[in-house]
Amino acid sequence: MAPESKAEGAPTALMRQYLEVKARYADALLFFRLGDFYEMFYEDAVYVARALGLTLTSRDKGKEDAVPMCGVPHHAASGYIAKLTELGHRVALCEQLEDPRSVKGIVKRDVVRVITPGVIIDENTLDPRTPNFVAAVAGEPRDGYAVAFADVTTGDFRGTWVQSREALIDELARIEPNELVVDGDDELPALVRKAYGRLPQSKLKDGFTDSAACIAFLQTCLGPGCDVEAVTKAPALALAAARVLKYARDTQVSSPLPISALEIYRRDDHLIIDEQARAHLELTCTMTGGHRKGSLLDALDVTCSAMGGRLLRRWLLFPLIDVAAIRRRLDAVERLVAHHGVRDEVRRHLAGLGDLERLASRARLGVATPRDLSVLGRSLRDLPALAEALMQASQDLVPEDPAGDLLHLGGDLEDALAEELTATLKEGAGAQTKDGGYVNDGVSAELDELRSIASGGRDRIVQIEARERTRTGIPSLKVKFNNVFGYYIEITKTHLAAVPADYTRKQTVANAERFVTPELAEYEEKIVSADDRRVALELAIFTVLRDKVAAAAPRLLALAAKVATVDVVAALAEQAHRNGYVRPEVDDSETLDFTDSRHPVVERLAAAGGFVPNDVRIDTESQQLLLVTGPNMAGKSTLIRQVALCVIMGQMGSFVPARTARLGVCDRVFTRVGAGDNLARGESTFLVEMRETAHILRNASRKSLVILDEIGRGTSTYDGVSIAWAVAEHLHDRIGARALFATHYHELCALCELHPKVVNVAVAAREWNGEVVFLRKLTPGGASRSFGVEVAKLAGLPAAVVARAQDILRSLESTRGTAAGPLMVVPRDDKAPQLGLFDRPPPSVAPASLAQAFPWAHEVIERLRNAEADDLSPRAAWDLVAELQKKLTSTD
Ligand code: ADP
Ligand code: MG
Question: Which 3-state string (H, E, C) describes 177-215?
Fold first, then answer.
């Protein structure tokens, strides 16, 4: 228990104060400040003690109505609060509003801030590169739905409206809020709870009754930042936005939010990547384990600043569909790809910048520390050099519209504010204000004087020490300081006899005695009072400065957004350069044509040069549905995903992993991964699989890209083939979307005979001595068998089991043609290329393992691949064959 609280009079009065505050914040855990601790009482204490593993004690122990209590030291509170918000709780911070030393009786206390899962401003709790959104939804079936969301640490406040509940749920998934504000008793919260069980929901106090009230509220808070016409047309959006804003404002009891505008976007202005696709394509986290490492975001994010990191994430989750806007981004990236030197310099400047967005917001919220403002000042001071460096990248450009140039910072770079911040605050100032020391000399004459009194006083103490040593003849005499009785003289036991009579003994310690003198007391008084005044003055100077930054916050946030854009563009350029990406030719066609395309993540994991690039073309004219067959582990999933990833990257404004790329803009990307292949949802049932497939068939358009991986796997073979067949037909005939269909049902290859725009391709694999060799190369035609048994052998299944499986397979295959069911209408594809390039290896070769065989096999394949058949004379061809044959026979 904090010592100060005992001096506060009757405990009942204190508890009355507690209960009064608690009543107003009944839905939060109340952290009640008592001296150096935050204390919790009653049920809060019982719960928090259990949840955080704290010791539960009680106030007025032993009495009958003892109050359960637990506490945490105030300087360590943020870690405990973070754990509670992570569990979905709200924490109300109740502070002492008066200096206990200057008050008799109970200190005035009240809540200064509420910390909630979606409204966190503690920099140690937040991930620098991920936004923390609080969201609200509204609407009903007839007029549609809306979602609005805000991040109070960056001022990001957006909203959109959608037609269906399905789209609403999906948009929420893209936003990934950490908290949902609910109001009244509409059915939406229950719906959201069903979809996202773990998303904490919080009730809005004093909610809104009608949309007129909402619009009025938005207008009051945002002024011109609220597009009244737009929100009037979309009442659900007005409601959702007002709820979020009101809720967020209520958490910041006395500080204004850094939010100055509601950005309304249309969901279909962006490439829609629904939840499944985001998960399957591992855009921001991996399917297994949900780690950022291994995701596309992680592979792309080499931004230099946290604000750039957040914006890159936004570009990735909200790619564009407007060709001109995409090209504008690509133009900017291209310029920094071309100008190596400029890129390096720009990135060097960016790396030195602080998080301008969060720093400006912290000033606005009244929580910025001297360190924050010092970093902000230094960052602003460096902006002109960044702007200068960027100018070099646009030198060869006709500046048609410099304001629209993503690489142009333009406008006011806040030089004056930068100057004031850096002149006032020390470089490297700390986060604490309680000891002062962060304001520069020369800022205030009064401050300088107080400092010299304090340091003059300290000099005087040193003089006193020297003088007393001479006077007493005790060489070890020391003047020291502690908080209990200030300055004192310490004399070791051996010299006690020489202590003069004018010393007053205060304390005995292990090997010495401590004394005070009137002279020391007098200087101490002088030093301490000057010091107190100095600390107070520094705080006052700082507060004025912070208010100035708070007032400038909207401008600073706009500037930060430009800097973040530069950071993202430079990062994408850097990646394009490092990984050999190419600028896609983006247009409104319905063609996707990539030569030598790669998977941006798998490529990095493969050994250098180990990833085999592939050409893929799909369009709506002649090759609309690509049926990709091949054995397990051949690389089908990788191939079809890399096409989707190239589309997403291109539409976000990035170069893509390919040698050439043409990208006819897509409106949506869908993926469906068959139950058997979907590891993350181990429990996934056939029903789920079919529901997701139905979702795709309902929502895909001619402009969409559909990636289907092994659908129909969750059921028996005949069912599976039949469903996959029907789905493919529907996509082909009715929807006309571009689609990639990976399947190990080679029966599906017959689709291409009935449907002109279905094209069979196979990821090549070859059998060798009963082993399978993966070539990873896409070849025309379908695979004629699946190599499952060979893969099983590769995986180490016992030889007896493999042999038995081979027997069974043979007998099954011999009867297949006569079986009843869908297979009868599915003729086997005899156009597939013959297997067995190495079916009959030369007798002299008996490699013990695949690894031994592979090096030269690989070389032979490469030689064949690179041979220009059209240009080869018959003689040269003969020579080549002879040479390769020799290679095959001399492998020892
Ligand atoms: P499938 O879906 O056909 O079973 P996957 O796409 O899952 O096969 O690929 C299996 C493994 O092969 C992957 O883990 C990947 O490491 C590797 N792989 C896939 N494609 C390539 C490629 N083009 N080049 C090199 N390795 C690849
Ligand atoms: Mg697969």
Answer: CCEEEECCCCCHHHHHHHHCCCCCEEECCCCCCCHHHHH
Determine the Cα–Cα distance for residues 29 and 889; give it in Å rounded to an integer.
79
How far does the centroid of ligand 1 lie from the alpha carbon of residue 631, in Å? Answer: 11
Q: Which residues of 753-789 are buried (b: 16+ CB within 10 A; e: fewer)?
A: eebebbbbbbbbbbbbeebbbbbbbbbebbbbbbbeb
pLDDT at position 419: 96
CA atoms of 262 and 280, how far apart (whole Å): 32
695-733: b or e for each residue (b if 16 or more CB lie within 10 Å)? bbbebbeebbbbbbbbbbbbbeeeebbbbbbebbeebbe
Distance, CA 95 to ligand 1 centroid (Å)?
58
For the stretch 848-860, pLDDT in tens is 443 454 456 667 7
Coil/strand/helix, residue 759: strand
pLDDT for residue 867: 75
Q: What pLDDT is stored for residue 683 in this prediction?
A: 45
How far, in Å, CA of 570 to CA of 585, rounded? Answer: 20
Radius of gyration of the chain (CA): 36
pTM above the 0.70 mark? yes
The pair of structure tokens assigned to 380 is 């602003």
For residue 464, the CA-to-ligand 2 centroid distance in Å is 83
Q: What percent of the chain has pLDDT over 90?
A: 57
The torsion angle over the Cα atoms of residues 832, 838, 840 and 843, rounded to 10 degrees, is 180
pLDDT confidence tier of residue 674, bands split at 50, 70 and 90: low
Residue of 632, 633, 638 with the most ligand 1 atoms within 8 Å of its CB, for mutation:
638
Q: What is the pLDDT of residue 679?
A: 44
The two tokens of residue 41 are 């009482």
CB atoms within 10 A of CB 315: 23
Q: pLDDT tens-digit profile of 807-843? A: 777 766 665 543 333 333 333 333 333 333 333 333 3
User: Which one of 595, 599, 602 would you pick to mutate in the ligand 1 pocket, going by the greatest count of ligand atoms within 8 A of its CB?
Assistant: 602
Residues having CB closer than 6 A to ligand 1 are 602, 606, 610-612, 630, 632-638, 776
- What type of residue sits at position 798? P
Q: How far is the CA of 763 from the centre of ligand 1 (A)?
A: 10
For residue 721, what pLDDT band results from cuts at 50, 70 and 90? confident
pLDDT value of position 805: 73
